Amino acid sequence: HYLGLYHTFQGVDQISCESDVSCSCSVSLSGDFASDTPADLPSSFHDSTTLNNFCRRPAVTQEPFPSPVSSFDICYDLPGYSNIFNWMDYSEPACLKLFTPAQVDRIDSTLGLSMPDLVSSSRRLAKCKAFAGTRGLLCNRPDACLVIGESGTCESCTLGCFLFKGKCRRCDSSCVTCTDLLGCTSCQTGFYLSARNRCTACSPGCAVCLDRTGECTLDATP
């Protein structure tokens, strides 16, 4: 909430329910002010054991951006499904793992408009801010692949992703481009390419610094 986010069920009201997890609902026009979080009642309406067992499945735990699940849907007359993986829902601890791109935009906007001094003076927040830009890039989506070969496998991925066994995978969060998960080849603004091809945040108050040494070449604008 401190960073400008609301619960995903903000403005959602149940009109009538056939069961605990099957309801007719309404939602205010604004909702949670994030366009990509489906309007639904809290995931706490679902059975906690069922949720935990589902979210502990290897296919779910190994996926950084799991897709919505049709079997978890409370408001049947509203588009989309329950936000069981979203940090701003009342879901089970085993499920919570992501913010959506629109939520990241709100966080980034809040940091930039309300806390610019805090961001520029904090190395940890600088890393977090750089991470926000690639957080919304879902490399497992079809549009992340730029070139599909004759065999149907991907041959080239968009920025922020690398090619692994014919599929696009997400680079380390501070990379712009990379050759594998821990091998950055270029970094986001405010970072430099350090030892072992990792992107490291420039010193607080520094906007641009040299690769390898981290020596500041341009101070951040006050």
Report on the structure:
With 222 residues, the protein is of the alpha+beta class. 20% of the residues lie in helices and 25% in strands. The chain has five helices and twelve strands. It has a two-stranded antiparallel ribbon with strand order 1-2. Strands 3-4 form a two-stranded antiparallel ribbon. A two-stranded antiparallel ribbon has the order 5-6. A hairpin with a 6-residue loop joins strand 11 and strand 12. The longest helix is centred in the middle third of the chain and has 14 residues. The relative contact order is 0.10. About 4% of the residues have low confidence.
Question: Strands across the major sheet, in which order?
Answer: 1-2
Strand element count: 12
Q: What oligomerization state is this entry in?
A: single chain
Rg estimate, integer Å:
20 Å
Portion of residues within helices: 10-25%
Strand content: 15-25%
State the end-to-end CA separation.
27 Å
Low-confidence stretches: 129-137
Please work out how many helical segments DSSP would assign.
Answer: 5
Overall spatial form: globular
Give helix and strand order, one letter per element, not per position. Answer: EEHHHHHEEEEEEEEEE
What characterizes the major β-sheet? 2 strands, antiparallel
- By helix and strand content, what is the structural category? alpha+beta
Mean pLDDT: 81
Task: Report a brief summary of the structure.
It contains five helices and twelve strands. With 222 residues, it is α+β, with helices and mostly antiparallel strands.
